[in-house]
Amino acid sequence: ARTAAVILxxxxxxxxxxxxxxxxxxxxxxxxxxxxxxLSEQLGIEKTIVVVGRERDQVEACVGMVNSKAVYALQAEAxxxxxxxxxxxxxxxxxAHVLILSGDVPGLGQETVEEMARVLEAENTPxxxxxxxxxxxxxxxxxxCDSDGKIEAIVEQRDASEAVRALTCCNAGIYLVxxxxxxxxxxxxxxxxxxxxxYLTDIxxxxxxxGTPAAVVVCSDAMETAGVNSRADLxxxxxxxxALRNHELMMNxxxxxxxxxxxxxxxxxxxxxxxxxxxxxxxxxxRVGRGSIxxxxxxxxxxxxxxxxxxxxxxVITLSSLGxxxxxxxxxHLRPGTNMAEDAKLGNFVETKKVNLGPxxxxxxxxxxxxxEIGAGVNIGAGTITCxxxxxxxxxxxxxxxxxxxxxxxxxxPLTIGEEAVVGAGSTLVRDVPPxxxxxxxxxxxxxxxxxxxxxxxxxxxxxxRKES
Length: 469
Known about the structure:
The chain is of the alpha/beta class. It has two domains: 3-225, Alpha-Beta Complex (Spore Coat Polysaccharide Biosynthesis Protein SpsA, Chain A); 254-439, Hexapeptide repeat proteins (UDP N-Acetylglucosamine Acyltransferase, domain 1), CATH 2.160.10.10. It is built from ten helices and 37 strands. It has a 23-stranded parallel β-sheet that branches. It has a seven-stranded mixed β-sheet with strand order 5-4-1-6-10-7-11. Strand 2 and strand 3 form a beta hairpin. It is elongated and about 110 Å long.
């Protein structure tokens, strides 16, 4: 039967203490709301309806990243979960069933929902409620069942008697329901409860009253139904998802020295025989090729690494591409637009931005290379700077193949250094260097004999000592 997914995402999330919509907070690099949206796609559901509230712009932006066909229903005033589902009535027209999901529950699995669908078809009921049994049920709505295991009522914590509070079967807030029954039952609800709201849970009572009580599916893993109400909840789920993700990677041939201290977001691709050391963070659309080694403390954002790449400790790499067998670090910063060809090297305390570094070229230490095109087999000496910014515009440096640049060189762009040219240490270049030329721009060296005997540090210290005595 055709099913519509209704995802509840209009809640304020006041316990997050933030102006940001709760369902847009991220778990392992993915906004909470995207988890149920992607789940509905995995289930083959054709229509996804997201119920939004005051922060609708934030929520719709997050949903649109993964599902451009989702539709949005506005709950203009927070009057309870049943009122939120009612907002989706028109958009769910034509569907036989409605799957009601929570926008702040990221762990729900496809198999669990498929079991709910099987129960709905197999039993004489218009409603299936997902339940769980936590170690501490305090705060959760309790599911009251008859002797046959069918639901008589779902009672919120603040409305529950002591006897009901003693029950351990709790409502997960996930429902699969026949649409006709759903909206007929909602029309009969009232706000006679502690919160003066329309409770969606009360539809279970109507199912029982009409002689077709709701069925229960108990989720064996309570973490699958865990929601987010605070930043502490968010941290718990982040840790949980990190462990699941890292286990998946290790089962596919990735070595992690300490999985509890390694964070790889869902969108990242890591090939087999990659080694990740402690405190590595890999985000966004990053790709790590086979046989690469990433040492402690490296942070990658939307970076592409070829095969056999070596990242030494504490490198930061953003929107950059590293070819096969390249080496970076330690303590290097590759900013957006850095592209390293195979066998290239960038060493300690090197910063790059919008640079193409050719095959086998290297800048092993203490350099800034920005807005530069660097050919093959080039050596960049320590302390070299491409002076690319004049205060208004950025300018490009072109360094051709097999150029040797000595230490402490300033290259004032725009200029071109021709192939196989040599730049002497300490030079400041302000114009082009022809191929196979030697470029020098130093002040002449002067040696003043015996100057230190009267004016050097030792002489001055001796003079001060005599004066003080």
